Amino acid sequence: MTPEPENNFRHWKRSFEPGFDVEADNPSPTTGYTKGQKKWIKRAWMYVTGGWRCQFPVWIGDRGGLCNSEKHIQIHHINPRGYSALVMQEEPDRPDNGIPICGEHHVRGKKWKKRNRRDQDIIHPDTATAFDSYRGKKQGLNPFKIMADKRKEKVKRGETYWIEDNDNYFADRAEIVVNTYVAENTDDVFPKRQRRKRRK
Questions:
Q1: Please, which residues have CB within 8 angstroms of residue 103's CB and are 6 or more apart in sequence?
Q2: Where are the domains of the chain?
Q3: Taking the model in full, what pTM does it have?
């Protein structure tokens, strides 16, 4: 059975309220998995699959396969954090909501291709666009803030802002890996988020 981590998405709900300042109002719950949780997820995938490799499906010649890159591996939230908390009413930082994806397929994309669903094999094309236009910050623009604001508006409407074509595969794969690891390593408990002590 998948372990139930600490329920901490109240902060995400408040982050969508008018006047909420993420930076000033304890941003830790919005930063995703903790270091301890990331290490646990990596251990699980290493144990079950024998490696820490990108799980993004790709075409290899005329056959389907996995990217399997070991470079710049990131843990992708299958159901992104804000969407999980607000729309699905679920804790985002669950072990079965994370899957290893390389930076190219997660947020970077291929620079010589257009940032759209047809031309890119990427989960978050809006992040790739923000990276491309980051130089605009010199003119007082922050493309990542613009991206975050657009995402919030979509989540408020219950809309997705990522390319969800592979979500069912990701969810099934992550569930199998986590359940297998938990069943065979009962002493290794998925760590809870440690709340920061406020300075007096």
A1: 71, 72, 73, 74
A2: 10-184
A3: 0.77
